[in-house]
Design a protein that fits this description.
The complex is a heterodimer of chains A (115) and B (115). Chain A is an all-beta fold and 115 residues long. Chain A contains no helices and twelve strands. Chain B is globular. The N and C termini of chain B lie far apart (32 Å).
Chain lengths: 115, 115
């Protein structure tokens, strides 16, 4: 079945460091891909998304590119801030005839940014 | 109120109690979801209602009973729970369960502790 694998955390960085959180997926068809973020004490919020190969999603300085050849959707940010400390979830939704309507989530990666 | 709200935010109950979790969405969506978030595990989809009809029940034990009286409200009735049911329960909504990129909007969750 479809699945999402994220790098294990926690990831600890100093402020202004470069961030990469790896995400790879297994899916039939042509999935849509998402990154969600969960700040402490809150629910998940959509951070960015990409719906087809080579699309780049971006928001709040974060970027991720849909790479079909490597089945990846890595999250990057050039300069992290303390306020970016949160748990980040990669997710997919199968497309076309494989669409079940479900979002499949990775296990989440905790990011801690220190001043 | 805007977005997706959940009450209560925290709940402690004994194994013989009966309680209910409430979710309300103010976004005009037609699909609503219950997820379970446990430590170090991916989000688990429990139930989906699309246009008030239950479309998904992911082998959830019968001690969890969902109710969706209209497109804006979703309940999760709890009875005879086990300590391993302690988790964060998240509600989400989206325009339509099967819609293309199906962005889901999440509530802040109810932190449930079963003693």
């Amino acid at each position: 079945g479809d699945s999402v694998t994220q790098m294990e955390g926690p990831v600890t960085l100093s402020e202004e460091a470069f961030l990469t959180i790896n995400c790879t997926y297994t899916a039939t068809g042509y999935p849509s891909l998402f990154w969600y973020v969960q700040y402490p004490g809150e629910g998940l919020q959509l951070l960015l998304k990409a719906t087809k190969a080579d699309d780049k999603g971006s928001n709040k300085g974060f970027e991720a590119t849909y790479r079909k050849e490597t089945t990846s959707f890595h999250l990057e940010k050039g300069s992290v801030q303390v306020s970016d400390s949160a748990v980040y979830f990669c997710a997919l939704k199968s497309g076309g005839s494989s669409n079940t309507g479900k979002l499949i989530f990775g296990q989440g990666t905790t990011l801690q940014v220190k001043p | 109120e805007t977005g997706v709200t959940q009450t209560p935010r925290h709940l402690v109950m004994g194994m013989t109690n009966k309680k209910s979790l409430k979710c309300e969405q103010h976004l005009g969506h037609n699909a609503m979801y219950w997820y379970k978030q446990s430590a170090k595990k991916p989000l688990e989809l429990m139930f989906v209602y699309n246009f008030k009809e239950q479309t998904e029940n992911n082998s959830v034990p019968s001690r969890f009973s969902p109710e969706c009286p209209n497109s804006s409200h979703l309940f999760l009735h709890l009875h005879t729970l086990q300590p391993e049911d302690s988790a964060l329960y998240l509600c989400a909504s989206s325009q339509d369960f099967l819609a293309g990129n199906n962005e889901q909007f999440f509530g802040p969750g109810t932190r449930l502790t079963v003693l």
